[in-house]
Specification:
By secondary structure, the chain is mostly helical. The protein contains 6 helices and 2 strands.
Amino acid sequence: LGRAGQLAKAENLINKMAFGPFVATWMSLLGACRIHGDVELGAYVAERIFELNPKNASPFVLLSNIYATAGKWDDAAKVRMIMKDRGVQKTTGCSCIEIKKRVYKFAVGHTSHPRKEEIYAE
């Protein structure tokens, strides 16, 4: 339902679940809110996720992106600040490459590789 843009129907279905919604269920709807630009429902859904799993960085990031896409920069900044205040951190992004059967890992913001000058020269 969410992918099809039927967000109200998806929310209604989630709220009627006999066993209560899981974080993954709400996350699916939050992702659909981002895709379809539903700021109001996105904020509501994010709050439900924060109640169920307050240390999960994903809903904070998604909600911030929803606000940013809608041009609500102050709201996006508030979400990031709340995230920081609660000590919620995103997992560091990284890339791996294999050269001659050796794997090299590069993480965002890390410059510990012994050939870093050569790598980042370009």
